[in-house]
Amino acid sequence: MTSTDQQPFLSVRDLKVHFSTEDGIVKAVDGLSFDLAKGQTLGIVGESGSGKSVTNLAILGLHDRKRTSLDGEILLDGKELLTAGERELEKLRGNKMAMIFQDALASLSPYHTVGRQIAETYRKHTGASKQEARARAVEMLRRVGIPQPDVRVDDYPHQFSGGMRQRAMIAMALVCDPELLIADEPTTALDVTVQAQIMDLLKDLQQEFGTSIIFITHDLGVIADIADDVLVMYGGRCVERGTKKEVLRTPRHPYTWGLLGSMPSLDHPVDVPLNPIPGSPPSLLNPPTGCRFHPRCAFPEKVAGGLCATERPLLDVVDGRGSACHLTPEQRADLLADLAGSRQN
């Protein structure tokens, strides 16, 4: 997803994250590859259980390695992360890379002020004094739009609104100027007005700091607002990737068609029904053979020889654009035109 003459800042190659359980091996991520350029935003989209968060916890080195099998390669600015030790990863977390979690109230300690939590993060990575760290916390709260930051720095998380807590989490994540920011559905629990404010804030801060962002969501509307490139995940694998314009305007995979078809749109009449994807996401303990989406797909009979149920489709990527589907380009074009026509009627 980066240009051929630009070295990716983050490179993930054939990542596998498998968990050992009493019931068997959970293949949460099963052969995932992507790149992220400096200062760009990659949107990772998919249903719950598709492997989005598991992927990014692997990047941060937050999996329990005693219970987790990690394979593949993760290079952050040329540094291999999967083989890095815990002490080395601790230095990178917060300093080189940071994460904004979905539930700010659960992520912030209720026993310490917001300012202290931001300041302690800064002190750990910079060795700053308490006074310097407090001043930095006030500065970051101001940057993320908290009113009266010199006063609110001494408030506890429960004294902040949901939107303000999320802003405080962003301040904590950015306090050491990380080069990679992972945002794990940071706006899901917020109302649409606050959600828009948080999105604008992230874009403004990205311009200011030049941060690379991975934005995890199940909402393609959010992707349309913030992402440069899009990675669509299903069943622990990537099924489609490309620029935001390519994926949203000319999607190639039936799963992406399903995601788009289940979204309301201002461009269509209000009485046009939405078309949810039938069935449920696959069990990653015993995933379907072949294409993992084929039990829910409406078009497997279009593919000769029953390949959808028996053979894993390859993710053929050319210039950052690709999809993992056995349908031919001609079949995809015809089916997509039919779907667009039925959506408008």
Automatic annotation (TrEMBL):
Cell location: Cell membrane
Domain of life: Bacteria
GO MF terms, alphabetically ordered: ATP binding; ATP hydrolysis activity
Boundaries of every ABC transporter domain copy: 12-260
Gene3D superfamilies (alphabetical): P-loop containing nucleotide triphosphate hydrolases
Protein name, entry field: Oligopeptide transport ATP-binding protein
GO cellular component: plasma membrane
Gene name of the record: oppD
Family of the protein in this entry: Belongs to the ABC transporter superfamily.
Membrane topology term: Peripheral membrane protein
BP terms from Gene Ontology: peptide transport
Keywords assigned by UniProt, alphabetized: ATP-binding, Cell membrane, Membrane, Nucleotide-binding, Transport
Pfam (any one): ABC_tran
